[in-house]
Amino acid sequence: MKTKWEVIVVGAGPAGMACAASCAEQGMGVLVLDEQPSPGGQIYRNIERQRDKVLAVLGQEYLRGAGLATRLRISGAEYKPLSKAWKVESNGRVCFSENGSSREVQGKRVVLAIGAMERPVPFSGWTLPGVAEAGGVDAFLKSDGLVPQGPVAIAGSGPIMLLVAGHLNKLGVEVNSFFDTTPSLSVLSALPHLLPALRRVDYLAKGVAMLMETRKSVGQYKRGVSHYEAVGAEHVTAVVAHKHGKATTVPASTLLVHEGIIPRTEFTRQLRLAHKWDGVQRYWYPDIDEDGRTSLPAIFVAGDSGFVHGGVAAELKGEITALAIAAELGKGGAFNEKRQKSLRKQLAHELLTRSFVDAMYSPRPNLSAVDDHVTVCRCEEVTAKTIRALVSSGQTAPEQVKAVSRCGMGPCQGRMCSSSLIEIMASETGKNAQDLPPLNVRPPVRNIGLGELANATLLPHNAAQKSSS
Amino acid sequence: MFIPVDQFEDRNVTITIDKQEFQVPEGISVAAAILGHGGHADCRCSFVHGEKRAPFCFIGVCHECLVEIDGKPNQQACLVLVRDGMHIVKQQVKEG
Q1: Global pTM value
Q2: pLDDT band for position A467 (cuts 50, 70, 90)
Q3: CATH label of the domain that carries residue A160
Q4: Residues of chain A with C-beta less than 8 angstroms from the C-beta of B35
Q5: Between chains, do A133 and B57 touch, taking CB under 8 Å as contact?
Q6: Which of A23, A225, A435, B47 has the fewest Cβ atoms within 10 Å of its own Cβ atom?
């Protein structure tokens, strides 16, 4: 396999597919590394060989990914499925694991298009089998044609809950309860953003239609739920929803939760790039310019891993980054400037509703106010009580608490607990979450065996490499 | 537990899960084989207390789906596809 590429794209969701295809179409040598078995990312997962029955439920918006995947396939870009990138270097070198062996490749430019994930939020019972993230289960439906066992309870906040409830309903799965934790006051903070959103009446109308359909199809629809918990011995058997101090218990074989979407920042963190804090959605995102440029000339970020704007925006951002890279590498043509302008216009149109939606579904204030017994770090089974005790004994830095408690040191490498750890520590110390230093991320950012690491095929170190590292 | 939306006519891949043999459709993930075709509700036990655990994120992030595949431990079941003759073992590893 070739080791030197003009562009290496990590991730084959909408941003990665659009960016890689566009770069390849403009004559660049492009390598795409993707963890999934086929292109599409989470939103268009398994788009190339979807089952008819699932396709009928996912509809038009999902089909948008078909054109994109085809475009990637015929673009000339080298697509590597089931390949996990585990280190990105500032000079454009990338290590990845495929089939149990690892090697290093070099790109003149590396585009990080690794997307977003559902915000992991701890609550009582969230480690029980039968409890899962709503968007994740939807992705599982796309790839594997499986639906969760009913009765299903759905809890949390955000448009994805409605989407998932709709899909399950159409596939005949009983959704017996829908517990919406969106604070009613959120409407007020969202109102100032309504005017631009009104220019996308199509989008808003779709949201309202989904809401009405959900209210009709689910057993009970409860708004203003303050928090929820899963109950069971070895599997969830019931869900308890709390509202105004009153608890409602429903039987459930599955609890699907959703508390919003956050960018995946493992590589931008591993590269020690600057990040900014979004106070509305309460997450860190890499500091990039409108083309996806970072402070490192070889590294770009495209799509939701730069900021969560959704699939259509991610596709546009991927293409915008491709054109910027083409200009830097002396590819593309005079037409590019015009094309870039048009893409930015389309992106602006796509983002009209975003501030409204982000404010409307801002994380509820009590998200990290979990009971002491709740497990925060799922891997190492560290409870909120342990974290709070360490804080009150004088540990004020998240890295210290991690080292002492092992919170964030398990196989997920802190992906599931680091944001909650910071939020809990912030509320214990009366600080703002953004003022606490996030946990360090070091390579390998994926779990690979020691033997594989030792046998990795690395590129020769040259003088330039040594002086820059 | 998960239920297939379709009949899956072509079950041409033979695998074992905890030594029990199953015929599953090709192209599905190991996680799907365990949860949707193997009649299991969990994939492994937790490292400290040995509680039952099942996939939580389904996108390769949470690592709750770690299983042993063909003798190799700690494989992410949601990111590996089934292969004919594959031996899957639900991981029961506790750290000291």
Answers
A1: 0.96
A2: very low
A3: 3.50.50.60
A4: 146
A5: yes
A6: A435
